[in-house]
Design a protein that fits this description.
single chain; 375 residues; mainly beta; 4 domains; five-stranded antiparallel sheet; 2 helices; 8% helix; 37% strand; elongated; disordered N terminus
Length: 375
Protein backbone atom coordinates (compact mmCIF):
# COMPACT_ATOMS: atom_id res chain seq x y z
CA UNK A 1 0.00 0.00 0.00
CA UNK A 2 2.88 2.30 0.70
CA UNK A 3 4.00 2.21 -2.95
CA UNK A 4 0.48 3.10 -4.08
CA UNK A 5 0.38 6.30 -2.00
CA UNK A 6 3.71 7.43 -3.55
CA UNK A 7 2.93 6.62 -7.16
CA UNK A 8 -0.59 8.03 -7.32
CA UNK A 9 0.50 11.71 -6.87
CA UNK A 10 3.27 11.24 -9.46
CA UNK A 11 0.88 9.80 -12.01
CA UNK A 12 -1.55 12.61 -11.23
CA UNK A 13 1.14 15.26 -11.93
CA UNK A 14 2.14 13.57 -15.17
CA UNK A 15 -1.48 13.26 -16.25
CA UNK A 16 -2.15 16.93 -15.54
CA UNK A 17 1.09 17.94 -17.19
CA UNK A 18 0.33 15.92 -20.27
CA UNK A 19 -2.97 17.69 -20.79
CA UNK A 20 -1.23 21.09 -20.72
CA UNK A 21 2.03 20.01 -22.35
CA UNK A 22 3.87 21.63 -19.38
CA UNK A 23 5.02 20.43 -15.95
CA UNK A 24 5.77 22.40 -12.75
CA UNK A 25 7.68 20.58 -10.00
CA UNK A 26 7.91 21.96 -6.44
CA UNK A 27 4.86 24.27 -6.49
CA UNK A 28 1.27 24.40 -7.71
CA UNK A 29 1.65 27.65 -9.64
CA UNK A 30 0.87 27.93 -13.32
CA UNK A 31 3.95 27.23 -15.50
CA UNK A 32 5.50 30.03 -17.49
CA UNK A 33 4.46 30.00 -21.14
CA UNK A 34 8.04 29.53 -22.27
CA UNK A 35 8.68 26.44 -20.06
CA UNK A 36 7.97 22.79 -20.76
CA UNK A 37 9.37 21.65 -17.38
CA UNK A 38 9.70 24.17 -14.52
CA UNK A 39 11.33 23.40 -11.18
CA UNK A 40 10.72 25.62 -8.13
CA UNK A 41 12.83 25.12 -5.00
CA UNK A 42 14.84 27.09 -2.47
CA UNK A 43 16.29 24.03 -0.73
CA UNK A 44 17.61 21.77 -3.45
CA UNK A 45 18.53 21.41 -7.09
CA UNK A 46 18.35 18.98 -9.99
CA UNK A 47 20.79 16.07 -9.85
CA UNK A 48 21.89 15.02 -13.34
CA UNK A 49 22.89 11.41 -14.08
CA UNK A 50 26.48 10.86 -12.90
CA UNK A 51 28.34 9.04 -15.68
CA UNK A 52 32.07 8.26 -15.71
CA UNK A 53 34.11 9.46 -18.67
CA UNK A 54 34.53 5.94 -20.11
CA UNK A 55 30.80 5.18 -19.99
CA UNK A 56 30.04 8.59 -21.49
CA UNK A 57 32.19 7.82 -24.52
CA UNK A 58 30.74 4.31 -24.84
CA UNK A 59 27.28 5.87 -25.20
CA UNK A 60 28.31 7.28 -28.59
CA UNK A 61 28.43 3.79 -30.14
CA UNK A 62 26.06 1.95 -27.79
CA UNK A 63 23.19 4.37 -28.43
CA UNK A 64 24.29 5.51 -31.92
CA UNK A 65 24.32 9.15 -30.82
CA UNK A 66 26.06 10.47 -33.94
CA UNK A 67 23.55 8.96 -36.36
CA UNK A 68 20.50 10.00 -34.34
CA UNK A 69 19.66 13.70 -34.80
CA UNK A 70 17.34 13.53 -31.76
CA UNK A 71 20.36 12.92 -29.50
CA UNK A 72 21.50 16.56 -29.63
CA UNK A 73 20.85 18.28 -26.31
CA UNK A 74 21.49 15.25 -24.05
CA UNK A 75 22.95 16.48 -20.71
CA UNK A 76 25.02 14.50 -18.17
CA UNK A 77 27.34 15.06 -15.21
CA UNK A 78 30.83 13.71 -15.95
CA UNK A 79 31.80 12.15 -12.62
CA UNK A 80 35.39 11.60 -13.77
CA UNK A 81 36.17 15.25 -14.59
CA UNK A 82 33.45 16.78 -12.35
CA UNK A 83 31.92 18.87 -15.14
CA UNK A 84 28.55 19.10 -16.87
CA UNK A 85 28.60 18.10 -20.54
CA UNK A 86 26.04 18.11 -23.33
CA UNK A 87 25.94 16.25 -26.65
CA UNK A 88 25.73 18.65 -29.64
CA UNK A 89 25.00 15.92 -32.16
CA UNK A 90 28.64 15.21 -33.00
CA UNK A 91 30.64 15.45 -29.76
CA UNK A 92 30.48 16.03 -26.03
CA UNK A 93 30.88 19.70 -25.08
CA UNK A 94 31.84 20.78 -21.56
CA UNK A 95 29.87 23.49 -19.78
CA UNK A 96 32.67 25.18 -17.85
CA UNK A 97 33.12 28.28 -15.77
CA UNK A 98 35.73 31.02 -16.35
CA UNK A 99 38.80 29.82 -18.27
CA UNK A 100 42.10 30.94 -16.84
CA UNK A 101 45.12 31.64 -19.01
CA UNK A 102 48.49 30.03 -18.43
CA UNK A 103 51.74 29.06 -20.15
CA UNK A 104 51.94 31.97 -22.58
CA UNK A 105 48.22 32.79 -22.69
CA UNK A 106 46.65 35.65 -20.73
CA UNK A 107 43.01 35.90 -19.60
CA UNK A 108 42.01 39.54 -20.21
CA UNK A 109 38.32 39.76 -19.43
CA UNK A 110 37.11 36.32 -18.43
CA UNK A 111 35.89 35.63 -21.96
CA UNK A 112 38.97 35.73 -24.15
CA UNK A 113 42.47 34.32 -24.07
CA UNK A 114 45.24 36.45 -25.57
CA UNK A 115 48.66 35.35 -26.74
CA UNK A 116 51.26 37.08 -24.61
CA UNK A 117 52.54 35.91 -21.24
CA UNK A 118 55.23 33.87 -19.55
CA UNK A 119 55.69 30.15 -20.13
CA UNK A 120 55.11 28.13 -16.98
CA UNK A 121 56.56 24.91 -18.33
CA UNK A 122 58.70 23.47 -21.12
CA UNK A 123 56.65 23.93 -24.27
CA UNK A 124 56.84 22.16 -27.64
CA UNK A 125 54.99 23.23 -30.80
CA UNK A 126 54.63 20.14 -32.98
CA UNK A 127 54.49 21.43 -36.56
CA UNK A 128 53.51 18.04 -38.02
CA UNK A 129 54.86 18.92 -41.51
CA UNK A 130 53.02 22.25 -41.45
CA UNK A 131 54.61 25.67 -41.85
CA UNK A 132 55.09 28.01 -38.88
CA UNK A 133 55.35 31.71 -39.81
CA UNK A 134 55.96 34.87 -37.82
CA UNK A 135 54.97 37.80 -40.03
CA UNK A 136 55.04 41.51 -39.30
CA UNK A 137 54.78 44.80 -41.13
CA UNK A 138 57.74 47.22 -41.33
CA UNK A 139 56.47 49.19 -38.34
CA UNK A 140 56.51 46.14 -36.05
CA UNK A 141 59.47 44.60 -34.24
CA UNK A 142 60.50 41.01 -33.63
CA UNK A 143 62.98 40.83 -30.75
CA UNK A 144 64.92 37.95 -29.20
CA UNK A 145 66.85 39.30 -26.25
CA UNK A 146 69.12 37.73 -23.63
CA UNK A 147 67.95 34.19 -24.48
CA UNK A 148 69.65 30.98 -25.50
CA UNK A 149 68.09 29.11 -28.42
CA UNK A 150 69.04 25.82 -30.06
CA UNK A 151 68.57 25.48 -33.83
CA UNK A 152 69.27 22.12 -35.48
CA UNK A 153 71.27 21.01 -32.42
CA UNK A 154 73.55 24.07 -32.71
CA UNK A 155 73.73 26.82 -30.13
CA UNK A 156 72.41 30.24 -31.10
CA UNK A 157 73.72 32.80 -28.62
CA UNK A 158 71.89 36.13 -28.31
CA UNK A 159 73.32 38.78 -25.99
CA UNK A 160 72.05 42.09 -24.70
CA UNK A 161 74.97 43.64 -26.61
CA UNK A 162 73.09 42.76 -29.84
CA UNK A 163 75.53 40.04 -30.78
CA UNK A 164 74.14 36.98 -32.54
CA UNK A 165 76.28 33.92 -33.32
CA UNK A 166 75.52 30.60 -34.98
CA UNK A 167 77.96 27.69 -34.89
CA UNK A 168 81.32 29.30 -34.17
CA UNK A 169 80.95 32.59 -36.13
CA UNK A 170 79.57 31.10 -39.35
CA UNK A 171 77.05 33.92 -38.95
CA UNK A 172 77.59 36.76 -36.51
CA UNK A 173 75.61 39.94 -35.97
CA UNK A 174 76.80 42.77 -33.77
CA UNK A 175 75.11 46.12 -34.01
CA UNK A 176 74.59 46.78 -37.72
CA UNK A 177 77.43 44.53 -38.81
CA UNK A 178 76.70 41.07 -40.23
CA UNK A 179 79.53 38.66 -41.01
CA UNK A 180 79.24 35.23 -42.66
CA UNK A 181 82.21 32.89 -42.92
CA UNK A 182 84.10 31.24 -44.57
CA UNK A 183 83.03 33.12 -47.72
CA UNK A 184 83.13 36.55 -45.96
CA UNK A 185 79.69 37.96 -46.67
CA UNK A 186 79.14 41.19 -44.76
CA UNK A 187 76.56 43.93 -44.32
CA UNK A 188 77.71 47.10 -42.61
CA UNK A 189 75.69 50.34 -42.37
CA UNK A 190 73.39 49.32 -45.24
CA UNK A 191 76.36 48.37 -47.47
CA UNK A 192 76.50 44.81 -48.75
CA UNK A 193 79.84 43.31 -49.82
CA UNK A 194 81.17 39.87 -50.63
CA UNK A 195 84.85 38.88 -50.58
CA UNK A 196 85.03 35.34 -51.91
CA UNK A 197 87.92 33.37 -50.48
CA UNK A 198 86.74 30.13 -51.97
CA UNK A 199 83.15 29.75 -53.02
CA UNK A 200 79.83 31.25 -51.95
CA UNK A 201 76.75 29.19 -52.64
CA UNK A 202 73.06 29.97 -52.40
CA UNK A 203 70.58 27.12 -52.53
CA UNK A 204 66.82 27.42 -52.75
CA UNK A 205 65.33 30.78 -53.73
CA UNK A 206 67.22 34.07 -53.86
CA UNK A 207 64.99 37.12 -53.53
CA UNK A 208 65.98 40.71 -54.22
CA UNK A 209 63.27 43.35 -53.93
CA UNK A 210 63.74 47.06 -54.52
CA UNK A 211 60.29 48.06 -55.81
CA UNK A 212 61.13 47.56 -59.51
CA UNK A 213 60.64 43.78 -59.54
CA UNK A 214 57.92 42.55 -61.87
CA UNK A 215 56.88 39.50 -63.85
CA UNK A 216 59.41 38.82 -66.62
CA UNK A 217 61.97 41.36 -65.38
CA UNK A 218 65.65 40.46 -65.16
CA UNK A 219 68.18 41.53 -62.54
CA UNK A 220 70.61 43.88 -64.27
CA UNK A 221 72.90 46.80 -63.42
CA UNK A 222 73.73 50.32 -64.57
CA UNK A 223 77.20 51.58 -65.48
CA UNK A 224 77.98 52.09 -61.76
CA UNK A 225 77.23 48.48 -60.91
CA UNK A 226 74.00 49.27 -59.05
CA UNK A 227 71.62 46.33 -59.42
CA UNK A 228 67.97 46.76 -60.33
CA UNK A 229 65.17 44.83 -61.96
CA UNK A 230 64.82 45.78 -65.63
CA UNK A 231 62.51 44.71 -68.42
CA UNK A 232 63.49 41.81 -70.66
CA UNK A 233 65.43 43.36 -73.57
CA UNK A 234 64.50 43.66 -76.32
CA UNK A 235 60.89 43.95 -75.28
CA UNK A 236 59.48 42.28 -78.39
CA UNK A 237 56.42 44.52 -78.14
CA UNK A 238 53.81 43.85 -80.84
CA UNK A 239 51.29 46.48 -81.90
CA UNK A 240 48.70 45.62 -84.51
CA UNK A 241 45.56 46.67 -86.33
CA UNK A 242 43.62 45.04 -89.17
CA UNK A 243 42.95 45.35 -92.89
CA UNK A 244 39.49 46.42 -94.04
CA UNK A 245 37.97 43.73 -96.28
CA UNK A 246 35.65 44.55 -99.23
CA UNK A 247 37.43 47.86 -99.74
CA UNK A 248 37.36 48.82 -103.42
CA UNK A 249 40.33 50.56 -105.00
CA UNK A 250 41.51 51.63 -108.45
CA UNK A 251 44.48 53.48 -109.95
CA UNK A 252 44.31 56.05 -107.16
CA UNK A 253 45.44 54.92 -103.72
CA UNK A 254 42.84 54.10 -101.06
CA UNK A 255 43.43 53.47 -97.35
CA UNK A 256 42.64 49.84 -96.56
CA UNK A 257 43.85 49.64 -92.93
CA UNK A 258 41.28 49.92 -90.15
CA UNK A 259 42.37 53.18 -88.59
CA UNK A 260 46.08 53.71 -88.05
CA UNK A 261 48.96 52.05 -86.19
CA UNK A 262 50.62 54.40 -83.67
CA UNK A 263 54.17 53.53 -82.56
CA UNK A 264 56.32 55.18 -79.86
CA UNK A 265 59.95 56.14 -80.47
CA UNK A 266 62.20 53.15 -81.12
CA UNK A 267 63.24 50.63 -83.74
CA UNK A 268 60.42 48.66 -85.37
CA UNK A 269 59.80 46.12 -88.10
CA UNK A 270 56.48 46.79 -89.84
CA UNK A 271 54.65 43.92 -91.57
CA UNK A 272 51.61 44.34 -93.83
CA UNK A 273 49.73 42.32 -96.47
CA UNK A 274 46.30 42.38 -98.05
CA UNK A 275 44.44 39.99 -100.36
CA UNK A 276 42.56 41.31 -103.39
CA UNK A 277 40.31 40.06 -106.19
CA UNK A 278 39.53 41.79 -109.48
CA UNK A 279 37.53 41.43 -112.70
CA UNK A 280 39.92 42.75 -115.33
CA UNK A 281 42.47 41.61 -117.88
CA UNK A 282 45.74 40.40 -116.43
CA UNK A 283 47.73 42.06 -119.18
CA UNK A 284 49.78 44.94 -117.86
CA UNK A 285 48.04 44.81 -114.48
CA UNK A 286 49.59 44.87 -111.04
CA UNK A 287 48.52 45.77 -107.49
CA UNK A 288 50.58 47.72 -105.04
CA UNK A 289 50.69 48.21 -101.27
CA UNK A 290 51.88 51.47 -99.73
CA UNK A 291 53.08 52.25 -96.18
CA UNK A 292 52.54 55.90 -95.21
CA UNK A 293 53.45 57.74 -92.01
CA UNK A 294 52.64 60.97 -90.17
CA UNK A 295 54.28 62.61 -87.13
CA UNK A 296 52.46 64.99 -84.76
CA UNK A 297 53.93 67.97 -86.62
CA UNK A 298 52.67 66.77 -90.04
CA UNK A 299 49.18 67.44 -91.35
CA UNK A 300 49.03 64.58 -93.89
CA UNK A 301 50.52 61.14 -94.51
CA UNK A 302 53.67 60.63 -96.56
CA UNK A 303 54.40 57.38 -98.41
CA UNK A 304 57.64 55.85 -97.12
CA UNK A 305 57.56 52.38 -98.73
CA UNK A 306 55.85 50.72 -101.69
CA UNK A 307 55.71 47.17 -103.06
CA UNK A 308 53.81 45.61 -105.97
CA UNK A 309 52.41 42.20 -106.92
CA UNK A 310 51.26 40.94 -110.33
CA UNK A 311 47.77 39.41 -110.30
CA UNK A 312 47.44 35.69 -110.88
CA UNK A 313 44.57 33.98 -112.65
CA UNK A 314 42.12 32.46 -110.20
CA UNK A 315 39.53 30.72 -112.42
CA UNK A 316 39.04 30.21 -116.17
CA UNK A 317 35.93 31.15 -118.10
CA UNK A 318 33.84 34.20 -118.77
CA UNK A 319 34.81 37.24 -116.78
CA UNK A 320 38.46 36.81 -115.98
CA UNK A 321 38.97 36.74 -112.21
CA UNK A 322 42.36 37.07 -110.58
CA UNK A 323 43.87 37.63 -107.17
CA UNK A 324 46.95 39.36 -105.78
CA UNK A 325 48.64 39.36 -102.35
CA UNK A 326 51.05 42.30 -102.18
CA UNK A 327 53.00 42.49 -98.91
CA UNK A 328 55.57 44.79 -97.35
CA UNK A 329 58.29 44.49 -94.67
CA UNK A 330 59.80 47.79 -93.58
CA UNK A 331 62.29 48.84 -90.87
CA UNK A 332 61.95 52.21 -89.11
CA UNK A 333 63.99 53.94 -86.41
CA UNK A 334 61.74 56.73 -85.21
CA UNK A 335 62.59 59.44 -82.67
CA UNK A 336 59.03 60.39 -81.79
CA UNK A 337 55.53 58.98 -81.78
CA UNK A 338 54.47 58.23 -85.38
CA UNK A 339 51.25 57.03 -87.03
CA UNK A 340 51.15 54.56 -89.94
CA UNK A 341 48.47 53.49 -92.44
CA UNK A 342 48.29 50.99 -95.32
CA UNK A 343 46.99 52.03 -98.75
CA UNK A 344 46.19 50.00 -101.87
CA UNK A 345 46.15 50.81 -105.59
CA UNK A 346 46.19 49.28 -109.09
CA UNK A 347 47.81 50.11 -112.42
CA UNK A 348 44.30 50.64 -113.88
CA UNK A 349 40.68 50.92 -112.75
CA UNK A 350 39.90 47.21 -112.87
CA UNK A 351 37.26 46.86 -110.14
CA UNK A 352 39.70 45.62 -107.52
CA UNK A 353 38.75 45.04 -103.88
CA UNK A 354 40.31 43.69 -100.71
CA UNK A 355 38.90 40.30 -99.69
CA UNK A 356 39.15 37.72 -96.94
CA UNK A 357 40.85 34.79 -98.63
CA UNK A 358 42.24 32.49 -95.94
CA UNK A 359 43.39 29.97 -98.55
CA UNK A 360 46.13 32.43 -99.53
CA UNK A 361 46.77 33.61 -95.96
CA UNK A 362 45.01 36.21 -93.85
CA UNK A 363 45.63 39.92 -94.26
CA UNK A 364 47.66 41.62 -91.52
CA UNK A 365 49.19 44.92 -90.38
CA UNK A 366 51.42 44.95 -87.29
CA UNK A 367 54.78 46.13 -85.95
CA UNK A 368 57.42 44.38 -83.82
CA UNK A 369 59.77 46.39 -81.61
CA UNK A 370 63.36 45.12 -81.91
CA UNK A 371 65.49 47.68 -80.07
CA UNK A 372 66.68 47.77 -76.46
CA UNK A 373 64.75 50.72 -75.00
CA UNK A 374 66.19 52.83 -72.21
CA UNK A 375 62.86 53.33 -70.42
Amino acid sequence: MKHRYILIPIFTILAIGSTKGQIVIGTDKEPEKFCIVEVESKKGGIRLPRIPDTNKNNMITTHSLTSNPESAGLVIYNSTNNIIEFWDGNRWVALSNKISGANGLTDTNGKELWLGGKLDDNTTVQMNNNELKIQHNPAAKFIINDTMVVVNNKIVDIRVAREFMVNDTVISIKGKYVDMRPAILSINNNTFSMNESGRTRMTGTFQYTDGTQDQGHLLTANNKGDAYWGALRPLGTVKSTSINNNKGFASSTVQVSDGMLELPAGQWLIFAKFNSNMNASLTGMYHWILLSSKTPSQSSYTTISRAGANPEKKTAGTGIKSYATPFILHYVNIKEKTQYIIQAGTSNAGNSATVSETWIGNSYFYALRIDIPTD
